């Protein structure tokens, strides 16, 4: 029996046992990768390839673990986000929004944010308390989301990504410079450990 035949047998066995197949977990790009600063392009074709991207993004977000992920964070500069605010233990409320656009925002809230693409840093960021977002679901149907609390913050954070904006762009220049220094130090330490 070849290794391919053995692999197929294990996959079929897993399916029969009820185990779901995992999509490939994608690499999450980190600051200062230039793709994170690109404005993502609108999605014009909802096909099987896009469905695979959505599934891979969701798997990557859950694996990280995180509560949201934008297309350009995984090297795909297209206007798509996935998020799930049900909690890291539940992971049962996946929301997919294609070509999201904030059409209304009200109130203001200060909340601590972190990001899968900004390693080892969190900061307080001012956001709108409530947002209304329009876009398409994963099948291409128009949707309107009216959210507040964590979901509103996540939507704003992920849509910022699609516009080439990181949450560190919302903090003071001094805090941003301190983070850049910290990041350089972390990268030097990592490079030193790799050369041993």
Describe this structure in words.
- With 196 residues, the chain is of the alpha+beta class.
- It has a single domain, classed as Peptide deformylase (Peptide Deformylase, Alpha-Beta Complex).
- Helix content is 33%, strand content 26%.
- The protein has helices spanning 3-16, 48-63, 150-162, 173-194, and strands at residues 68-70, 80-83, 95-106, 109-115, 118-127, 130-136, 142-148.
- The strands form two sheets. A five-stranded antiparallel beta sheet has the order 1-2-3-6-7. The chain has a two-stranded antiparallel ribbon with strand order 4-5.
- The chain starts with a helix and ends with a helix.
Give a short summary of the structure.
The longest helix has 22 residues, at 173-194. With 196 residues, this protein is an alpha+beta fold. The chain has helices spanning 3-16, 48-63, 150-162, 173-194; strands at 68-70, 80-83, 95-106, 109-115, 118-127, 130-136, 142-148.
Which secondary structure elements does this structure contain, and how are they paired or packed?
Elements: H1 3-16, H2 48-63, E1 68-70, E2 80-83, E3 95-106, E4 109-115, E5 118-127, E6 130-136, E7 142-148, H3 150-162, H4 173-194
